[in-house]
């Protein structure tokens, strides 16, 4: 009888741990969708409203101070969330994440001025499809994707360096080739990051006594930021390749 009760108790713990992992994973995707929703709304409002666009561009057609803030502040906010993870409180981290999502959306409003609406929508849908497929693959595969991490990080650093170089060269052909590489890289990173986030959730299950709810919630925000960046980069690189300019 005691052995039977032990099995029931063991099964109950297992179910509880699974629910913790799934709750963490769902929390990550919830915040990611919140960020995408805020960015999409901000991009649409500023991209379709001349009065709001006037805050980003002066009457002479030059970038305003707020325009520069919208363009470069998101990078600073990403660094703040990364390096200030342990120091920022959970509400503060949420505030920075929401501000980042809104400013990124505002900076993306220029896309609506440069590309046709049809190409933006089609590339967004294609990015969603690619992201969804790779997310499922990363979550369900039994292959350990962590071994590809160093290769992907080298590819990411290489892409950043190449982008900086092309900023000076301003070569359309080089930019076009990099876009294909960017799509491939962030497609692979999506599967890699999803599996990594899944394992973080499983780690929270195992070390439940050592990880507080606040820490778990903060890790979900950082995970959402990671997946948001994967999706955003897939979309932007697709747009560079297939987007139709006005």
List the main descriptive attributes of the protein structure presented here.
mainly alpha, 83% helix, disordered N terminus, 0% strand, 246 residues, 9 helices, globular
Percentage of helical residues?
Answer: over 70%
Average pLDDT: 87
What is the N-to-C succession of helices and strands? HHHHHHHHH
Q: Uncertain regions: pLDDT < 50 for 5+ in a row? A: 1-17
Oligomer: single chain
Q: What Rg is obtained from the alpha carbons, in whole angstroms? A: 21 Å
Q: Report how far apart the termini are.
A: 75 Å
Task: Tell me the β content.
Answer: under 5%
Largest sheet: none
Structural class: mainly alpha
Coarse shape: globular
The number of distinct helices, counting runs of at least 4 residues, comes to 9
> How many E-type strands?
0
Overall domain count: 1
Topology:
Layout: H1 2-48, H2 50-53, H3 65-83, H4 90-107, H5 109-114, H6 117-140, H7 149-169, H8 172-206, H9 213-242
Helix pairs in contact: 1-4, 1-8, 1-9, 3-4, 4-9, 6-8, 6-9, 7-8, 8-9
